[in-house]
Design a protein that fits this description.
heterodimer, A: alpha+beta, PH-domain like, three-stranded antiparallel β-sheet, 4 helices, about 25% strand, B: alpha+beta, six-stranded antiparallel β-sheet, 18 helices, about 20% strand, globular, PH domain-containing protein (chain B), transmembrane helix (chain B), UCP026631 (chain B)
Chain lengths: ~150, ~575
């Protein structure tokens, strides 16, 4: 089972931190405008959200895994709801490798696999190195062509 | 010379557009623009404007008519259209999923029809021809079906086709469809509107006795049921009046509708999922309904048209026979979830019941009108029964060529998915399933209804079963695809039997090692075929793990290794026939 690049934890943790800031700010605004809440509550909310978010990112990283099997792509992920997906190569429509601004900053990339299925866009592998994402994309593409699927639908 | 729209489409389109414009105009006149027009010369000017508008409208529609051309060639449907910005579109015929004709009452009087060509993957209709004569519409529908089979264009005229009626909905059955269907949309809207007036109403009833209030609640509930029932009857009759389903070669055709008539085609080779649906009432009287899904309908239209392109009601035997005509899956012997699941459901219902009771108690605590808040507790007696029933109606079955799943008590759906239609297999476990060691396996297809998350799913199966199921479905998808490919190839290369023999010979040679991609593919196909034909539908997840372990031990994945991995796959495929 392949793991993601450890740096993806940073990406997720930063996202969690941003969310924590937003939550803290909301609490602060509410306490200023409407309710008479303790002064330190916004800070508390921020800290709790931050710790939970960072821990979540770490656990999420530990539980994420993918595997290029001989005939299908297999993914395992999810902290609370554990999801395991099997994408047969014959079903792959196209493969993208994508890099968002935050991902570029951290030197990461993701690979997105599309099928004709209704949940196709779900199959995205984050936290790869740019080279890794490109080579995975390339490999999946070759495997998909070789699997020579018929018309998807 | 390519065919054109019906000339009648000009006045119809103009009138329809004019109607909405007129409405806007009248609205504008009465909302203050009157004063302005009075200054500018009064009613005469308004009349002049209207005449100008009508002329412009008719002119546009004439231009639209003159510049709209379509043509059905052996390969594609070509449409060029547009008055100001031109658009030329070619739709490959083999991509066309459904050809749907619809006519509302007025269109029927004018004998014109709207034709929609649906392809997979688009959120909108790929091509919509706005109004040809009904005969032309039917001709298009027939021609598309014929051309897709590779026959010569223009050869088949009306009547030459071999159409066999499979099912017609009798008047009695139509009445039953109405009686047995509830349309919750109307009451839903009512409820939504009423929810805003709750404070007012509760104010009104503040001095009413508690039991009376409860009685009122029950009365309102009954009213909702009655209204939804009546709405259901109206909708069902409007939708399914004069329903017939017939088969023309490799297509199904349906016709239905009271005011608006629908004539649709469902190519059998595009069927993704077949769903048999019933509810307790239908089960009691031995009825069921059938829905056939293709990938031709975009999101949002699935519930509206896709799922209605099927039999609304027929006796169970008839429905099963029809379903088997479309997808010969046989007689499923469902594997139920483990019995401990019943305790889980009971727990779930208890929690829901507790929540409702608590809410009732809260209301009573605040209003203090003597409302019998404990009423929901009466349902405690039903909880075990409900849990058992839910468990009873759940299950999955792996057939020779299909996976069949069944879920639901009130709206029981039996979904039949051919293995070769599987897109992805998703196994998931929610935190609530963890502690019971359960999992859900969703079989994703490209069907239209799956877009709203209505996929075939084996819900709450044992965790180990789920893992096996996941790999097994993947396995069978590939085997089934290989069989289909072989059949197609055999049909295509019937005149070259020597070539096929050679491949078989090579496939038998197991230790062939890395071979050229093309040959390798063919070997695997033939092998897969043998595996399927002799295969016993028993789970064989072990081999899969074995090969994946193999893969893990190979650090450098170059293409040679891939070929190796593939031959592993072949070996395993053959194993499963033992």
């Amino acid at each position: 089972m392949n793991r993601l690049h450890p740096r993806v934890q940073v990406l997720w943790a930063v996202r969690a931190a941003l969310l924590a800031v937003v939550l803290g700010a909301i609490t602060w605004v509410v306490s200023r405008v409407a309710l008479d809440l303790p002064t330190l509550l916004p800070v508390g909310v921020f800290l709790v959200a931050l710790v939970v978010g960072v821990a979540y990112a770490a656990v999420k990283y530990r539980l994420w895994g993918y595997e290029v099997r001989e005939d299908s792509l297999y993914l395992e992920r999810g902290v609370f709801t554990r999801v395991r997906t099997v994408v047969p190569f014959v079903r792959i429509q196209h493969v993208d490798s994508a890099r968002g601004p935050a991902e570029r900053f951290l030197g990461l990339a993701s690979t997105v696999v599309y099928t004709a299925g209704s949940r196709g866009a779900d199959v995205s592998i984050p936290g790869l190195t740019p080279d890794g994402a490109d080579s995975l994309q390339d490999r999946l593409k070759r495997l998909a062509i070789r699997a020579e699927g018929e018309d998807a639908v | 010379m390519s065919p054109r729209l019906s000339p009648l489409s000009v006045p119809y389109r103009a009138a329809r557009k004019g109607g909405s414009l007129l409405f806007t105009l009248v609205f504008a006149l009465f909302s203050g623009a009157m004063a302005v027009t009075n200054d500018l010369g009064g009613p005469l000017l308004v009349l002049g404007l209207v005449v100008l508008l009508v002329l412009a409208l008719v002119g546009y529609e004439v231009a639209y008519y003159r510049r709209y051309e379509y043509e059905l060639t052996a390969e594609s449907l070509d449409i060029s259209s547009g008055v100001f910005s031109r658009r030329n579109r070619e739709i490959p015929l083999r991509r066309v999923q459904n050809v749907d004709i619809s006519r509302n009452a007025l269109q029927r009087a004018l004998s014109i029809a709207a034709v929609n060509f649906e392809t997979a993957g688009g959120s909108t209709t790929e091509a919509a021809i706005r109004f040809v004569s009904f005969e032309e519409a039917k001709r298009l529908q027939r021609e598309v079906a014929r051309l897709k089979r590779g026959e010569e264009p223009g050869a088949g005229e009306a009547g030459e086709e071999d159409v066999e009626e499979l099912f017609a909905l009798s008047a009695d059955e139509l009445a039953l469809v109405g009686l047995l269907s509830f349309d919750l949309r109307g009451p839903g809207i009512l409820l939504f509107l009423a929810s805003g007036s709750v404070p007012v109403v509760s104010g009104l009833f503040a001095d009413v006795e508690g039991p009376l209030l409860a009685l009122g609640g029950v009365a309102v509930l009954l009213l909702i049921v009655l209204v939804s029932w009546l709405a259901g009857i109206a909708v069902a009759v409007a939708n399914y009046y004069g329903f017939t389903l017939s088969r023309a070669d490799d297509e199904l055709r349906y016709e239905r509708g009271l005011l608006r008539r629908y004539d649709g085609s469902i190519p059998l080779d595009k069927v993704q999922t077949v769903t048999v649906e019933d509810n307790p009432l239908k089960r009691r009287f031995g009825y069921a309904s059938l829905a056939i899904e293709t990938a031709g309908y975009g999101p949002g239209t699935g519930g509206d048209r896709g799922s209605e392109s099927a039999v609304p009601l027929a006796s169970v035997e008839r429905v099963l026979q029809l379903a088997n005509d479309v997808e010969p899956f046989g007689d499923p012997a469902f594997e139920r979830p483990p019995k401990r699941v019943r305790r889980r459901y009971a727990m779930r219902y208890l929690i829901a019941l507790a929540a409702v009771t608590a809410a009732f108690f809260g209301v009573e605590y605040v209003l203090a009108v003597g409302f019998p808040w404990w009423i929901p507790l009466v349902l405690l007696a039903v909880v075990p029964v409900a849990a058992h029933l839910k468990w009873l109606h759940r299950g999955y079955w792996l057939g020779a060529d299909h996976v069949v799943t069944r879920n639901g008590f009130w709206r029981r759906q039996t979904k039949v998915v051919p293995y070769y239609r599987i897109q992805t297999v998703i196994e998931s476990r929610t935190p609530f399933q963890w502690r019971w060691d359960l999992a859900t396996v969703v079989v994703d297809t490209a069907g239209s209804n799956s877009l709203v998350g209505n996929d075939a799913a084996a819900v709450d199966v044992d965790e180990s079963t789920a893992a096996t199921l996941r790999d097994e479905l993947d396995e069978r998808l590939r085997a089934s695809l290989a069989t289909r490919r072989d059949r197609q190839r055999a049909e295509a290369t019937e005149r070259r039997p020597a070539d096929a023999d050679e491949s078989v010979g090579r496939a038998a040679d197991e230790g062939a090692g890395p071979v050229a991609d093309d040959d390798d593919g063919r070997n695997r196909d033939l092998d897969g075929d043998e595996a399927v034909e002799g295969s016993d539908p028993d789970a064989d997840g072990e081999g899969e793990h074995g090969t994946s372990d193999d893969r893990r031990n190979k650090p450098g994945d170059d293409s040679e290794n891939e070929v190796d991995g593939d031959t592993d796959g072949v070996g395993f495929g053959a194993d499963s026939s033992n």
